[in-house]
Amino acid sequence: MRIELAPMESITTYIYRKALKNYYGGIDTYFSPFISTHKNKKLNYKELNDILPENNNGINLIPQVMTSDAEEFLYTSSQIKELGYDHINLNFGCPSGTVTAKGKGAGILIYPEKLEKLLDEIFSKSDMKISVKTRVGYSEYEEWNRLLDIYKKFPLKELIVHPRIREDFYNGKADRSLMKETLFRIKEVGMTVSYNGDIYSVSDCEDVIDKMPELDAVMIGRGLLTNPSLACNIKSRESDKNSNLLTDKEIIHTASFKEFNLELMNNYAEIMSGDRNTLFKLKELWVYMSNLFDEPAKVLKKIQKCNTLRDYKNILDVYLG
Questions:
Q1: What is the pLDDT of residues 165-224, one digit of tens each?
Q2: Which residues are CB-neighbours of 57 under 8 A, at least 6 positions away?
Q3: 3-state helix, strand, coil in the chain (%, to 5)
């Protein structure tokens, strides 16, 4: 089973990806945070820097693009192609209100005719491999049948399905039963399929695989941000069903976990201006990692009160040993 890292805006940047690979691994494909297209817009420094091949050595990276306009997509994809990429992922899943109001991300799902026209124009004019990450609807789960019929019309490199509707955001449970019920319809056209949603543990992943053995991959986002060893633990269990895995409480006291966090701190400090900006990046991640601890709110509060990197490192020493 291939494991993919879900793109998380401002968090799963090249610095995070490299640290994750260096200390844990287990991930087969990494997706960059989305690049939003605009008319005649060149990739800005941040976008370009994140996907530069030299910043992603040894990482199988697929840039993700968010668009509602084929010409804008073609202009952006040509810049990405110049960097040596031949595969782009389209984001039709982001539920953010500022995104959907522009008809991008999950916002396009409310207009299936527009979605089909967009894909038709892209596939007729682009020579890039195209995959799609999608939700199953905007406001109703019944929308999925129509959306799936559209996706099946195109030679997608991969279809990554997050079985929530836009209006769910990340609340409730991802509807694995809906995914299971419709998986055969995706596979019947020979499409590669990945499942995304609510994988926080090895047992969560095993449950998905047991219910849907026909899957080609699973994409994990928040589960990996919480526990960076999750992907390698899944791979270890796949190779040896009797392998003894460290618990969350054991992981936080390993040398790898502390070194992983120190590498993130040092590498962000190199590119960020001042302690405050560096800490802002680190605090975003600790919203997730604090859940590894017995008292997550207490740990997170300590991290959030940090004003200097010296304070931050002292807290790591206290909590990680």
A1: 999 999 999 999 999 999 999 999 999 999 999 999 999 999 999 999 999 999 999 999
A2: none
A3: 50, 15, 35
**Contact yes or no for 194/217 (Cβ under 8 A):** yes
* Angle subtended by helix axes 296-304 and 309-320, to nearest 10: 160
Nearest to 264 by CA among 44, 5, 61, 24: 24
pTM for the full predicted model: 0.96
Strands of the sheet with 87-92, listed across from one edge: 35-36, 64-66, 87-92, 129-137, 159-165, 193-196, 217-220, 2-5, 29-31, 61-62
pLDDT tens track for 114-126:
999 999 999 999 9
What number of other Cβ atoms are within 10 A of residue 85's Cβ?
18
Say which residue the tokens 């633990």 belong to. 233
- Collapsing DSSP to helix, strand or coil, 8 comes out as coil
Q: For 81-177, list the strands marked E by DSSP.
A: 87-92, 129-137, 159-165
Torsion of the alpha carbons at 101, 76, 30 and 264, rounded to the nearest 10 = -80
- Amino acid present at 294: D
Under a CB-based contact definition with an 8 Å cutoff, are residues 253 and 320 in contact? yes
Q: How many CA atoms lie within 13 A of 220 on its CB side?
A: 26
The count of C-alpha atoms lying within 13 angstroms of the C-alpha of 244, restricted to the half-sphere facing its C-beta, is 1
Spatial contact of 46 and 21, defined as CB atoms under 8 Å apart: no
